[in-house]
Automatic annotation (TrEMBL):
<dbReference type="InterPro" id="IPR011006">
    <property type="entry name" value="CheY-like_superfamily"/>
</dbReference>
<dbReference type="Pfam" id="PF00072">
    <property type="entry name" value="Response_reg"/>
</dbReference>
<feature type="modified residue" description="4-aspartylphosphate">
    <location>
        <position position="67"/>
    </location>
</feature>
<keyword id="KW-0597">Phosphoprotein</keyword>
<feature type="domain" description="Response regulatory">
    <location>
        <begin position="8"/>
        <end position="136"/>
    </location>
</feature>
<protein>
    <recommendedName>
        <fullName>Response regulatory domain-containing protein</fullName>
    </recommendedName>
</protein>
<dbReference type="InterPro" id="IPR001789">
    <property type="entry name" value="Sig_transdc_resp-reg_receiver"/>
</dbReference>
<dbReference type="InterPro" id="IPR052893">
    <property type="entry name" value="TCS_response_regulator"/>
</dbReference>
<dbReference type="GO" id="GO:0000160">
    <property type="term" value="P:phosphorelay signal transduction system"/>
</dbReference>
Length: 136
């Protein structure tokens, strides 16, 4: 997918510094659109739910870079709650896991979510970001 056809990229990671670094990497890769970061899965889900109910499906899908291991409302919690959205809205989001977890079970478990299109490891680099775009 052409990166600048994405209406927005959502970063979900509890560490503000990680979100800042990821924004920088994405900008240096050439993305010019909106980048919104969240430090909790619950906050991100609430925002996404508001977006889809107010605006309806966007013309192009949004990209979500999701950390799995977050305190409180984890990436897994986010994925499970995301399933509560109607399919017509869920298809407007492409979720890429971006984690430091090296647990092979996380890869297997994430592949069971049809909304997850990619599994990547931190840190995000320009090359890994471009590979994520390749699978969209």
């Amino acid at each position: 997918m052409e990166m600048n056809s994405l209406p927005a990229i959502f970063l979900i990671d509890e560490e503000e510094i990680v979100n800042m670094i990821n924004k920088t990497v994405i900008r240096r890769a050439g993305y010019k659109g909106e980048i919104k970061d969240f430090q909790s899965g619950q906050e991100a889900f609430d925002f996404i739910q508001k977006v889809v109910t107010q605006n309806g499906p966007p013309p192009q899908p949004y990209l979500i870079l999701l950390d799995l291991n977050m305190p409180g409302f984890s990436g897994w919690d986010f994925l499970n709650k995301f399933l509560s959205l109607k399919q017509e809205f869920r298809k407007q989001f492409k979720i890429s896991i971006l984690t430091s977890s090296v647990n092979p079970e996380d890869i297997t478990k994430s592949s069971q979510f049809t909304d997850v299109v990619q599994f990547s490891f931190k840190p995000l680099t320009k090359d890994s970001f471009l590979k994520i775009l390749d699978v969209l």
